[in-house]
Amino acid sequence: VMAAAHGQGLRSTATIMFGHVERPVHWARHLLRVRSLQARTGGFTEFVPLPFVPMEAPIYRKGRTRRGPTTREALLLHAVARLALHPLVPNIQASWVMLGRDGVAACLDAGVNDLGGTLMNESISRAAGAAHGQELPPDDMEALIRGCGRTPRQRTTLYGDAPAERIAVAARPGPLEPVRSTPAREYLRSRRDAAVAGQ
User: Fold this and answer.
1) d(Cα 48, Cα 89) in Å, to the nearest integer?
2) Which of 40, 96, 99, 186 has its CA 20 to 30 A from that of 132?
3) Torsional class of 195: left (φ above 0), alpha (ψ -120 to 50), beta (otherwise)
4) How many Cα atoms sit within 13 Å of 85 on the Cβ side?
5) DSSP three-state, residue 34
6) Does the reported pTM lie above 0.90?
7) Across the chain, what does the average pLDDT equal?
8) Residues in the chain with pLDDT < 70?
């Protein structure tokens, strides 16, 4: 799918969800396949390791997976991705939603050069049980980056410089609306009840 998309001139993100049922050999194979495809197409803008968030994931709740990667594993995968994909994939991104501020700060010292977006009312990771928040405003993100001895730069999707007017808008975010994350077990129960009522 990615080769076809890149062949049509589209750019995309490469990811890996890790820390559930796979082993390190699977991480290595995945990195080599991303590298190989990138060498052919040049279509990936970044690589994003996504640590498995288990708490509300049905596969974890059924006892079929482990409880996500260790902090050491998460740090190592980001660092190894930088080494394995260099120079073909120039950007390695860390997800503050899944790793937290301390986790992404450690990753910035281990080869990461990009943080996941500021986000607003993030719900996917929180629905799975992540507890690192639903928004990281630009000022907070910049302070985090500067605290790691790096210089922040707001970017576009394709890693160009963000226009000044977009930077100004981002600096004045409005208040977030309250979000209710429905745990997976409640969502499944309500769908089951609706199906029974519809029979």
Assistant:
1) 11
2) 186
3) alpha
4) 32
5) helix
6) no
7) 86
8) 117-135, 176-199
